[in-house]
Here is the input.
Amino acid sequence: MSSHDNPRKPETNVNDQFVSRWSPRSFDANQSVEPSQLQSLFEAAKWAPSCFNEQPWRFFAAAKPSAKFEAFLQALVEKNQGWAKNSGALVFVACTQTFKRNDKPNAWAEFDTGAAWMSLALQAQSMGLHVHAMAGFDADKAKAVLGGDVDQLKLIAAVAVGKKSEPSVGEYASEAPNDRFSLAEFCKIYE
Ligand SMILES: Cc1cc2nc3c(=O)[nH]c(=O)nc-3n(C[C@H](O)[C@H](O)[C@H](O)COP(=O)(O)O)c2cc1C
Here is the structure.
């Protein structure tokens, strides 16, 4: 975490893993992410709940150094490339769009994939890694890189995985965890 003020103060009792997870941009370019670490992230994702246990999430990962990592990087928008290049691995997150059981559209596939991604994020945190999701990528470029692997799939997001640089440096030297709306703004518990 940066030395800057951390505005994150939970309003009530909660496991600290939820409050302390955040998405830095200042990754340490000298720290690699091993395939076994990526497997642990996907193992965590695997146990997420899903509609009819369909497990619609699909993950495509490339660790540095590799031509695939560079190709993944080029599929990100320029702003994201600027910091994600220092991460140790890039992941594209996709989902299936129909149920295996009956070929009908699965309207919950993205909900389920969101759950899986969050499991991945919390597993990363427990391993001393950070992850940072990105909507900022060019879907056509990503599809060109992933080829037949993503036929029929919906590409949802990219994720950078790595070790945060300590302290944060350069353009992101002052980055720090951000805050949230209060509970009263987004939930209501009926009596
Ligand atoms: C689906 C999704 C897309 C995002 N896209 C980007 C992105 O393209 N570039 C970026 O720098 N951050 C991106 N973020 C990071 C969010 O800005 C960040 O998660 C949010 O501000 C909350 O901060 P936190 O993750 O540190 O708690 C994205 C996050 C998610 C979940």
User: Anything to note?
Assistant: The chain has seven helices and four strands. The first helix runs from residue 16 to 20. Residues 22-23, 80, 133-136, 157, 177-178 surround flavin mononucleotide (CB under 6 Å). The mean pLDDT is 96.
